[in-house]
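User: Fold this one for me? It's ABC transporter substrate-binding protein.
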Amino acid sequence: MRRITRITTVGIASAALALSATACGKSSTDAGSSPSSSTGATKAAIAYDIGGRGDQSFNDAAYEGLKKAEDELGVKGAEAEPSEGEGDADKVQRLTALARAGNNPVIGVGFAYAPAIEKVAKAYPKTTFGLIDDTSKTGPNIANLVFNEEQGSYLAGVAAAKASKTGKVGFIGGVEVPLIKKFEAGFVQGVKATNPKAEVLTQYLTQPPNFDGFSKPDLGKAAAQGQLDKGADVIYAAAGLAGSGAIEATSKAGKWAIGVDSDQYNQKGLAAYKANILTSVTKDVSDSVFNLIKSVKDGKPQTGEIRYGLATDGVGLADSNPEYKKMTDLIAAVEKAEKDIVDGKITVKTTP
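Assistant: Here's what I get for ABC transporter substrate-binding protein.
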């Protein structure tokens, strides 16, 4: 039976007030400690990135890891959603409430949680904090769960170049930040290595501090339509929830879309467009979340940088679409590129 508790922003504030009252009453645990460590119960929480659960991509992958921990480890899970236009103070409040409630580990989904985790981890040294997609903030109780997105994106570039009939392909980045630049760099390199004459159309939806490019499907849809109008027949979007709009536009045009983070061919919310989702660049966010929770439950919490790349199946290219499996030349090119990356014959760029 699922026991995941979803916490809204209002719920967090209420919980924080209630928990503050408990702390003032001298609870059995010291400030900065995790109640679960004293009771032996295992509670784990994830705080979602922009777009929240239901993005069919990054956040949903993290949720699957929490659900797996519930099902296989008997963990009681909690989820906390972001609020639109929030700042670091909101994230600090959210993480503090989750830690104070006895969750261990507490996992921030996305680099935007870095400043908040750095602050809250110091206040709760007995709680393990997971920080996905960021290594800028470290600590003795922080696990930095990071991925070689550029490697998976290189494979997507190979696939795009092989599948394209027009010689024009598109890349859509949600927000122009260093993380998404890694996706662009790998993709462009893979395309050009496969077809030097190919043209890659690149567009970012927003610039920081505007992060709507990760949450507004209409932005992705409009960008994809613009690239389709220019002749692109394969479009790869690394844009979170906004990427679903790009997939919709590409599918309706009868062209190929490449998904990201999760195997988007199998996402229920994208079922209407799955026939045109050629493949997806997958990041094993699910297992990274599960592995961190399991390490805490086992009494050997992960800390420091934990990297997932091609060599460990931490990133890859999905082959769920039956049409993809029929493209023997494409598959052979992807498999060769994957082997060459793992063997060190190809070094994939992390910046365009």
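One thing worth pointing out: The first helix runs from residue 9 to 24.
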